[in-house]
Amino acid sequence: QVQLVESGGGLVQAGGSLRLSCAASGRTFSRHTMGWFRQAPGKAREFVAAISWSDSTSYADSVKGRFTISRDNAKSTVYLQMNSLKPEDTAVYYCAARSIGIDYYNYWGQGTQVTVSS
User: Fold this and answer.
1) C-alpha distances out from residue 10 to 24, 64, 92, 109, 111, Å
2) Which residues, other chains included, contact 15 with Cβ-Cβ below 8 Å and sequence gap of 6+?
3) Residue 60 exposed, middle or buried by CB count within 10 Å (0-12, 13-18, 19+)
4) pLDDT confidence of 57, banded at 50, 70, 90?
5) What is the end-to-end Cα distance of the chain in Å, rounded?
6) Cα–Cα distance for residue pair 99/30, rounded to 1 Å
7) pLDDT tens digits for 2-40?
8) CA of residue 5 relative to chain centroid, distance
């Protein structure tokens, strides 16, 4: 079982930066692919970024070059550094974990609100 707790959300002006953190419980953190998703009001949840157990990363086209995902296995924490934020980045951001051998994200955090003002 993995529990995920996000932090670091808040209100920022367009062009600013925020760093989200996701702390995971459990001793097998390093064996999970970790992802960030977001959901804006009235829209479906969408993929933002992911990092595998081998540190391979992937990003949505909308955030490439602006967001960076990283992980610290010693701290069981995954980060999302968000730069050059835009109003359209406003959403609830969710951390998720995918266990090895499973093709969907089977653990989810509660989410943290990110609001970007214009």
Assistant:
1) 21, 21, 10, 17, 12
2) 84, 85
3) middle
4) very high
5) 40
6) 10
7) 899 999 999 999 999 999 999 999 778 888 999 999 999
8) 11
